[in-house]
Amino acid sequence: MVERLTGAARHTALRELHGWSEVDDRDAIRKSYHFSNFSEAWGFLSRIALAAEKMDHHPEI
């Protein structure tokens, strides 16, 4: 399992990840995605769900 980044290490790492940011008042990061239609969004979500399950990671979506 990957070690969780916190504090300054997370802040530094996020500078290199386009579109990701820290969530105020939470130990979390976020990125927003925009899709042209529901089917495109659902397909993306399905791929994310399968990858997350393989990593035993359960992100808030």
Class by SSE composition: mainly alpha
The helicity comes to 40-55%
Q: Kindly, what is the distance between the CA atoms of the first and last residues, rounded to a whole number of angstroms?
A: 21 Å
Mean pLDDT metric: 92
Major β-sheet strand ordering: 1-2
Structure description:
This protein has helices at 7-14, 38-54, and strands at residues 21-22, 29-30. A hairpin with a 6-residue loop joins β1 (21-22) and β2. The chain is globular and about 40 Å long. The protein is mainly alpha-helical and 61 residues long. It folds into two domains: 1-30, no CATH class; 32-61, no CATH class. It is built from two helices and two strands, in the order αββα. 41% of the residues lie in helices and 7% in strands.
Task: Sum this structure up briefly.
This protein has 61 residues and is mainly alpha-helical. It has two helices and two strands.
Question: What would the keywords be for this entry?
Answer:
61 residues, mainly alpha, 2 domains, two-stranded antiparallel sheet, 7% strand
